Amino acid sequence: EAGVAQSPRYKIIEKRQSVAFWCNPISGHATLYWYQQILGQGPKLLIQFQNNGVVDDSQLPKDRFSAERLKGVDSTLKIQPAKLEDSAVYLCASSLAGTGANYGYTFGSGTRLTVV
Amino acid sequence: GDSVTQMEGPVTLSEEAFLTINCTYTATGYPSLFWYVQYPGEGLQLLLKATKADDKGSNKGFEATYRKETTSFHLEKGSVQVSDSAVYFCALEPNRDDKIIFGKGTRLHILP
Fold first, then answer.
1. 116 residues of chain A, pLDDT tens digit each
2. Least CB-packed of A35, A70, B9, B31 within 10 Å?
3. Residue B102: which of B88, B94, B91 has the closest Cα?
């Protein structure tokens, strides 16, 4: 079974620039998550999708972050404009609908963003 | 709100030593509890889980018991190996909710 694919693996941008990350979940996984992991901290949920609908985006900084999952499969997360404090690893995860973490999320390897 | 607190790292042990990484949680309702591991250069992997009080999760020689009375889920291993060097995250899933709330992580170094 293919895992959760993310790209790019690394990205360096200047502050105030824009950046986009892509995620392709495991086939058949209806639920998709984006987490932000700042160095030295645990991952924090940014947004959760069920198919192409948003379930939870309460911790997404909506003034600069946006995410979409138009066809209920792959997803993009965008930051515009980026700030220094956005430097982090952005993790995508997926799970079967309705099972949540009890059956184990599958995480991608993440995109490491450095804002200079 | 719901939260997880785990011991600060890094933790450095010699090979074959006994390992304990403490984790306590705050949650309303009846959360599921997890330990995730992140090996160098790799993504997060589920190590073990427990879904109700007194459950014991185990995997790869690691164990953790869901203690509701002390709101704890401490990770233990009887004899660690160099290959166990990684960052370990304690986490919870609030009742009937898909999101995971993570602790800050504990970096473990095992010396040969």
1. 678 999 999 999 999 999 999 999 999 888 899 999 999 889 999 999 988 899 999 999 999 999 999 888 999 999 999 999 999 999 999 987 665 555 667 899 999 999 99
2. A70
3. B91
B46/A contact by beta carbon, under 8 A: yes
**Residue B97 half-sphere exposure toward CB, CA atoms < 13 A:** 17
Give residue B24's identity as a one-letter amino acid code. T
Cβ-based neighbours of A5, under 8 Å, separated by 6 or more: A23, A24, A108
- The distance from CA A80 to its chain's CA centroid, rounded to whole angstroms, is 15
On whether any CB of chain A is under 8 Å from the CB of B86, the answer is no
CA distance B6 to A40: 13
Q: Chain A residues with CB inside 8 Å of B4's CB?
A: 42
Residue B98 with chain A: CB contacts under 8 Å: 31, 33, 48, 55, 95, 100-101
* Count of A-B CB contacts under 8 Å: 59
B31 at A interface, C-beta within 8 A: no
Gap between the Cα atoms of B51 and B32, Å rounded: 4
